[in-house]
Amino acid sequence: GIIDCAVREEKGWLLLDFKTDRVRGSALERRLKGYKNQLRLYARALQCLSSVPVAEAYLYFLTTGLAVKVSPPVLSKAARNGDSTV
Question: Kind of pairing, strands 66-69 and 12-19?
């Protein structure tokens, strides 16, 4: 995958992943789990590459204007410094 938007802010990265789904309700809820995992993987990669934490991460659904906050993974100091064995 490709990170759609990463903005460096004072507290760390702001990570956005844009979605174009036209689903709502229960169909959207089913998809959110996979999307959240994808965004957490992006956050982990960004933190490992930059040694800067992801402070905030959101899924943004373009067709509905819905923004869903996703808790970024908390990485150990070794992982933030690029240790791939973590």
Answer: unpaired
Over the chain (86 residues), what is each successive 10-residue block's mean pLDDT? 95 95 84 91 94 94 91 60 46
**What is the pLDDT at residue 75?**
55
Cα separation of 31 and 14, whole Å? 22
- Pick the closest to residue 15 from 63, 68, 80 (CA basis): 68
Residue type (1 letter), 77: K
C-alpha of 78 from chain center: 20
Rg (CA), the chain: 14
Size of the chain, expressed as the number of residues it contains: 86
Q: How far is CA 36 from CA 60, 79, 82, in A?
A: 11, 20, 22
Read off the tokens for 62. 């373009």
The rounded distance, in Å, linking the Cα atoms of 32 and 55 is 20
